[in-house]
């Protein structure tokens, strides 16, 4: 039986043809022919493509304001139908609140299509990250970080009735991974003040006063 090939298609979903062409161009310039870039002019067209070729798609680049959807509705539907498909938002909306909510809804990244060098570099680095396979764990090595589902399940066992948001689960995982507030802010794209507020809420939820106490709960 032939070995299944890893996905290598990047699906760019935007209702502006010039934007789709631009995304294709920068990806080809950076990665040559490593990836196939497919295009969809709207959410419905993207869903039709995924019905046929979801297994081929490595990453989906999603605009938030399409002809057939607005705001985070498209992201929410994609996450519901294809929870394992990495989705990166590429939007003209440069609003920190929208960015934080998109990340909380499960977007792998959020970048503005304004031509900013930092956003472009971050987008291309995210493509590279999505394409990099997770290395096999060596015997005796520490286990990989828990998935959000595992973290939530363990949280519920530790503190019955606890309710964590997607953002709190993400921050909790990073705390358990040993990251400080500054590193969490860089990793998530959140403002430092937002990270501090989230960490304080997590401490209150688990009735701990320090990172060390929190980590001991999960050890």
UniProtKB/TrEMBL annotation:
PROSITE patterns per record: HTH_LUXR_2, RESPONSE_REGULATORY
Keyword Signal recorded: no
HTH luxR-type domain mapped to chain residues: 157-219
Region (Disordered): 133-152
SMART domains: HTH_LUXR, REC
Stretch forming the signal peptide: none
InterPro entries tied to this protein: CheY-like_superfamily (IPR011006), EvgA-like (IPR051015), NreC/VraR/RcsB-like_REC (IPR058245), Sig_transdc_resp-reg_C-effctor (IPR016032), Sig_transdc_resp-reg_receiver (IPR001789), Tscrpt_reg_LuxR_C (IPR000792), WH-like_DNA-bd_sf (IPR036388)
4-aspartylphosphate carried by residues: 63
Keywords in alphabetical order: DNA-binding, Phosphoprotein
Keyword Transmembrane helix: no
CDD domains found in the cross-reference section: LuxR_C_like, REC_NarL-like
Name listed for the protein in its UniProt record: DNA-binding NarL/FixJ family response regulator
Classification of source organism: Bacteria, Pseudomonadati, Pseudomonadota, Betaproteobacteria, Burkholderiales
